[in-house]
């Protein structure tokens, strides 16, 4: 009898959970900025990356079940030669891997938890994120993810793989700062 009561109570509590609303991220109003770093010195090139599409579910308290697709061919830098090098096989090989995908499981306690697929390699990824409600029901997501490029097969000029690089060495980690704006709606 006690077990039956607990099952009924659990069922009732689950029935009164707020339904999740699907949100669509607006690529046009979203901003993604990457920054890389030299191993020595202060050189820190920066550029942008475009979001192809993004979506997630939000029930008023928890954000989860998201998918964010990035257009790797859109990676930019003010130096055209560096921009092309980033798109080539030494770095992101965008001809073979035109899209990177972050699959969000959930945001819990201000930390996004999911998996990133970059260059066909999927690895777990966690990073801090903040959520702000905007007028009209939209949501803004902001944060900075720090990524180790070598975990995705981007080993060019990494002192972890090559010796005696001197000032040509590039740090393994780079940052992707983002601000995404999403509105309720279907894809």
Question: What's the layout of helices and strands?
Answer:
Layout lengths: L1 H14 L5 E5 L5 E5 L10 E3 L1 E9 L4 E9 L8 H8 L11 E10 L2 E8 L2 E13 L5 E10 L24 E12 L3
Antiparallel strand pairs: 1-4, 1-10, 2-3, 2-10, 4-5, 5-6, 6-7, 7-8, 8-9, 9-10
Q: Can you give me a brief rundown of this structure?
A:
By secondary structure, the chain is mainly β.
What sequence of helices (H) and strands (E) makes up the elements? HEEEEEHEEEEE
Share of helical residues: 10-25%
Q: Roughly what is the average pLDDT, rounded to an integer?
A: 90
Class of secondary structure makeup: mainly beta
Number of helices in the DSSP assignment:
2
Q: Briefly note the CATH topology name.
A: Lipocalin
Compute the separation of the termini in Å.
45 Å
Write out the CATH superfamily name: Lipid/polyisoprenoid-binding, YceI-like
Shape, principal axes of CA atoms: elongated
Strand content: 35-45%
Oligomeric form:
single chain
Task: Supply Rg.
Answer: 20 Å
Give a count of the beta strands, DSSP E runs of length 2 or more.
Answer: 10
Q: Extract low-pLDDT stretches.
A: none
InterPro entries: Lipid/polyisoprenoid-bd_YceI (IPR007372), TTHA0802/YceI-like_sf (IPR036761)
Keywords: Signal
Organism: Hymenobacter algoricola
Protein name: Lipid/polyisoprenoid-binding YceI-like domain-containing protein
Detailed description of the structure:
- The protein has 187 residues and is mainly beta.
- The chain has a single domain, classed as Lipocalin, CATH 2.40.128.
- It has helices spanning 2-15, 80-87, and strands spanning 21-25, 31-35, 46-48, 50-58, 63-71, 99-108, 111-118, 121-133, 139-148, 173-184.
- An eight-stranded antiparallel barrel has the order 1-4-5-6-7-8-9-10.
- The N and C termini lie far apart (45 Å).
- The mean pLDDT is 90.
